[in-house]
Amino acid sequence: MLTHRGYFPGIFEACWWAASTLATQADQMPRAATARVIAVLWMFMSVAFIAYFTAAVTSSLTVQQLRGDINGPEDLPGKRVGSIKGSTSVEYLRQRSVEPVEFTKMEEAYQALQDGQVDAVVYDAPVLLFYAAHEGKGKVQTAGAIFRKENYGIVFPSNSPYRKPVNEALLKLKENGTYDQLYTKWFGGIGS
């Protein structure tokens, strides 16, 4: 039996029917308006929770796929790791029970990485970051943080008139932010 209840109660009834059909096929539906509002909210919260959970799982699996097998120094033992002969990187690897594949030139190490002859290359961060940001862009990626911080220096003869002006210029570059801009331009990230 159909009865005429009015326009807005009919809209509410249609929305209730659509939501309950979407969320469940139960035989018994709440009859009171308050119970229906709570039921609709509960149904939409359930759909949102399931969507969030699915997105979180998918995102986690995607990140794991993108990260790969090597994400830091703890992942290097048992892998083929290239470096430059006689470097501090070779010494670092041997201290951690990793026998490196040694190369005389970085270009050889990069080529070995791209050819699959080594699984990773460990060397000075600026050299690797520059390669990854330029020639190796889209082909290789850096993984993990810097293993061991080592500073670079500029050597002058004793009593050189250039030592003090160079030190002042470097300090000024660091203080005014130019160092960070140059680091970002050439290595793809903020320097330290």
Describe it for me?
By secondary structure, the protein is mainly α. It has three domains: 61 residues, no CATH class; 81 residues, Periplasmic binding protein-like II (D-Maltodextrin-Binding Protein, domain 2), CATH 3.40.190; 40 residues, no CATH class. Helix content is 53%, strand content 5%. A three-stranded parallel sheet has the order 2-1-3, with helices on one face. Helix 3 links the parallel strand 1 and strand 2. The model has no long low-confidence stretch (mean pLDDT 81).
Brief description of this entry?
The protein has 192 residues and is mainly alpha-helical. 53% of the residues lie in helices and 5% in strands.
> Total domains, how many?
3
Report the β-strand fraction as a percent range. under 5%
Name of the level-1 CATH class of the largest domain: Alpha Beta
Q: What is the SS-derived class? A: mainly alpha
Average pLDDT rating: 81
Distance between the termini: 78 Å
As for the CATH topology of the largest domain, it is D-Maltodextrin-Binding Protein, domain 2
Question: What is the spatial order of strands in the main beta sheet?
Answer: 2-1-3
Alpha carbon gyration radius: 31 Å
Ranges with pLDDT <50 over ≥5 residues?
none
**What spatial form do the alpha-carbon principal axes imply?**
elongated
What is the percent of helical residues?
40-55%
The second-level CATH architecture of the largest domain is: 3-Layer(aba) Sandwich
